[in-house]
Amino acid sequence: ARKQDAEPETLVHVAELLGELQSYAALSPLEKLFGSQDPVIRRAAVRALRFLYFKRSFVIVRKALADGDAQVREAALVAISGLHFPHAFNPLARIYRESNDPRVRTSALQSIGKIQTVEAGEFLVMVLRQEGGNLREAAYQSLTQMDNADVIPILRQHHEIETNPQVRDTLGELLRRH
What we know:
The chain is an all-alpha fold and 178 residues long. It is 74% helix and 0% strand.
């Protein structure tokens, strides 16, 4: 009986250790742990992903975003905010496009902004031009923190063709900041 009670704790600890390995080899066992019926174990598996900068990490993150347990979904949000590396752009953009949850979309935008590539800058400009409210604000904040000179011509180009006065002003403000 003692062994059964300790098993979830042990598996949670194993998930934490796997994350700390920061190795691609940790993903397969984390995928197995995420398959557990116990939400505590699934949450630990997702939390471990924030250290694993591989596109494959997003397989679990996307499943976790649809998990029935609120704390597992919350752990996926934390993982998204930690997963910002050049190859994360496409999975993050996909999460942004597929989600209806404003918090998920905002977290994805914030991580995309930390990637610092031209592709990320173009995506954020597109969001700034097409969305409103908090999503536009998140794209704006991410663009203010972009430190890639190659994004400036993109901002300038969109500023010149923008027909919405509010968006045009926002693009102009971004140009003045850079």
